[in-house]
Each structure stands twice: as C-alpha cells, then as structure tokens.
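Journal club prep — side note

Before the paper discussion, L.F. wants everyone to see what a predicted structure for a comparable chain looks like in token form. Sequence:
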Amino acid sequence: MPDYSLLIFDWDGTLVDSVDRIVESMRVAAERSGLSWRSDEAIKGIIGLGLPEAIQTLYPEVDDEAALAIFRSDYAEHYLLLEVEPSPLFPGVAEALEYFRQAGYRLAVATGKSRRGLDRVLKGRGWEGFFDITRAADESASKPDPRMLNEILAHCRVPAQGALMVGDAPFDLEMARRAGMDSVAVSYGAQPISVLRQYGPRLEIGHFNELRAWLDGRVQNPRIEVSKHVG
C-alpha cells in the first residue's frame, strides 16, 4: 500500500449525513421557481458539484443570472432552516479524524459547498483550525476539475501519490483520478458502490472506521480493497 501522508475528504455524504436535506432543499427551491419535479436519484446525482453547476445540471432551463440567483437563495434559505439542528457526522468520523491527526496525517476538505457554507459548518463544530486546508467550490473550481486537489497538494507540499481522496460521489473520484491520486469510495453516501466502482477507487468502505483499519494495515480483505481499477 502506498505511504499516504495527506487525507482529503469530501464533506456532504462522506463526513456528514446531509444528503436528505440537500434533496429536500433542492426540491423546495425548484417548486418556488415553478420548475418540474426531479427524482431523488437525479438530485443525488448532482451532489458534489458546486451549487450553480448542480442547479444548471438539473435545470438547464435556468439559464440567466437572475433566475439562478433566486434559485440559489431559495435553496440556501431552506437548507439553513433544516440546519438549525446541524446534520450529524456519520458514525466513527469524529474519532477517526482525531486519530488520523494524532497519527501525523495532514487532513484537508475538498467540497462542493460554498466557502460561506463550509465556514459555517466548521465553526458550528469548533473545527475552524482542525484541517490543514479546506477548499470550497466557489473559491476554486467545481468538481470534477482537479483544481481544488492541486491547490491542496501545493499548500501541503505533498505529491499526488502521497495523498488519498475520500468521497461518496463520482465527481470526487473522477477529480482524484484527474489529479493523479488514489481514492476511496464511500458506499453510505449519495451514490451506490456499483456507480462509484466505475471510477477505479483503491478502496471501498461501508463504514468510516474501515478507512482507519485499512490505513493501519489491519485489513487485507479483497471485499474492501480493490486490487484492480475498474473503468
């Protein structure tokens, strides 16, 4: 197994159980704009993109700045109402992240959230200084463009082969592939593992603690570790 020194995490659907709130907020915003219904699967399929890219993928008819701004505002307003009680971390996340930091790993976040949204959730958890670096879509480029990852690598002075991207969406894994780094597919988030497997992850996990076990070298289970990339 490569010697990773930098672990990079997606946020929604990977660290935080927020997928259902994203789906609901997208539906509410669409309804307020008089737009047609989209399925759960369709909405989950855009999670990971920056919000403008996500909206325009689902609703290409929202093609002017004023309509897009209204949709974004309605989405954010409803999401913030739901977030009065913050979305919970997935089981094992808090403990594993603390363990990784104490073990000497560099930690980063690469998310489709806005900088404002990411700062809000980090502050809410008292994590303002927890990660070495965080990158948001609106200050960089939306996934799967590798720009966020390249900026993180440059900041941490770590080569791509020394980093690992952990995510629950095809955009996460494709971004990692374009940046030349290995990835971990999370099966409990927005997309089923059958979809993520097409993007060649090094590892598939169904619980966050499986990442810790694998990095510690305690897991050599071919059900979990993908020995050959697919796709």
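L.F.'s comment for the group: The chain has two domains: 6-17+89-215, 19-82. Keep this in mind when we get to the figures.
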